[in-house]
Amino acid sequence: MSDGHGPSPEPPSGWASEQPPPYGAPQASPWTAPAGGQQPPSGQQPYEPGPPPQPYGQMPYPGHGYAPQPQPLRPGIIPLRPLRLGDIFDGTIKLVRSNPKAVLGLSAIAALLAAIPLAVGQAFVFGSMGSVLADPTLAQGGDPAVLDSFIGQYGGTFASYAISFVVVTLLTGVLTRILGRAVFGGKMTAGEAWQASKGRMPALFGVVGLMALVMLAPVAVIAAVVAVLVSTGLTGSSDSVGGLVALFLAVMILYIAYVLFFRTRFAFAPAAVVLEGRGPIDALRRSWRLVTGDFWRVLGILMLTALVVGMVAAVLQVPFVFGGTIIGLIGGGSTATVVVGAILVAIGGTLGAMITYPFEAGVAGLLYADRRMRAEAFDLVLQTAAIEQQRQGWVHASADELWHPSDRP
């Protein structure tokens, strides 16, 4: 029977009963699993959404004054709509809190593997500093201990970079897969995430390798130019030295701008490889297209993220590194102080990187999702899938396939 305002709209299937219960009576929540003890099929994750959305404002409703305006659907770590900066940071923190064993555990392993070579290098430094402090002239006389210290320090740094290249690439792929499921409220163990992402690792290494070549290409050119200037004797006079210093500063500024530009343009390539199944070249092109139209916002968020995680990592890392260095130096090169100092340096490096790795990967992954929502209306795809998973009561493993675009431009 009409009340003068037309027929009431039908509620969506699976969300509510056709007739609402009387006022004050308990209402069935659409956020609960199916009744009757129904369990998800083998291999599927139970649906574990957060609390039901609460009204966050009022909006005019003709004939009825004001009606509550519901929040966007949020089954997982982010609301399924274009994201604000706070949503991205909050979603990254929720990614860690919702799956700490997989996220922090894998990050700690990767950070420790990269920190061990640095700690070993520092052990060589600490071992040689006792003799140098006792006789400072050894530092100028080519003493073998000083040479070992130099080789150990820089050799450890180089080894750390090489290991980081491998483990951080692997970690990025696994964390991106975990993030893709967490958007829907699902969870993955470290083993499940590895099984789901290991097939994409060759392409992911290809992307990281191509990005490294792009970043290092200007360095090779600059080194060649400097070698030519030195060989031709153009660095002898004071005027030429001053000019070279000014030129060096200008080149460094241009190189930093170059790195920031391409780092931003290719920021979404790892996510395109893991979540969309693209090859290295196609992923770089995909990232370039997604960043187009929102370059400065993406750059600003990435730089702010690097600043935030750098400060947090420093707070965790500096006390251990400082303490280990002091113990290693004042110990006079004894075995006990060298070992203790190296261990403290390793702990500091692990704690700092353990926070840096997942936060940077999470922000990059959620920025990728945000750009797809803004550029491709991908939020509608995510909302439709989340509603269906909510109705059935679990997150299907096939949710990972929703990240594949319907067309492959």
From TrEMBL:
<feature type="transmembrane region" description="Helical">
    <location>
        <begin position="322"/>
        <end position="347"/>
    </location>
</feature>
<keyword id="KW-1133">Transmembrane helix</keyword>
<keyword id="KW-0812">Transmembrane</keyword>
<dbReference type="InterPro" id="IPR057169">
    <property type="entry name" value="DUF7847"/>
</dbReference>
<protein>
    <submittedName>
        <fullName>Membrane protein</fullName>
    </submittedName>
</protein>
<feature type="transmembrane region" description="Helical">
    <location>
        <begin position="295"/>
        <end position="316"/>
    </location>
</feature>
<feature type="compositionally biased region" description="Low complexity">
    <location>
        <begin position="56"/>
        <end position="73"/>
    </location>
</feature>
<keyword id="KW-0472">Membrane</keyword>
<feature type="transmembrane region" description="Helical">
    <location>
        <begin position="241"/>
        <end position="261"/>
    </location>
</feature>
<feature type="transmembrane region" description="Helical">
    <location>
        <begin position="158"/>
        <end position="180"/>
    </location>
</feature>
<feature type="compositionally biased region" description="Low complexity">
    <location>
        <begin position="34"/>
        <end position="47"/>
    </location>
</feature>
<feature type="transmembrane region" description="Helical">
    <location>
        <begin position="201"/>
        <end position="229"/>
    </location>
</feature>
<feature type="domain" description="DUF7847">
    <location>
        <begin position="84"/>
        <end position="348"/>
    </location>
</feature>
<feature type="region of interest" description="Disordered">
    <location>
        <begin position="1"/>
        <end position="73"/>
    </location>
</feature>
<feature type="transmembrane region" description="Helical">
    <location>
        <begin position="103"/>
        <end position="126"/>
    </location>
</feature>
<dbReference type="Pfam" id="PF25231">
    <property type="entry name" value="DUF7847"/>
</dbReference>
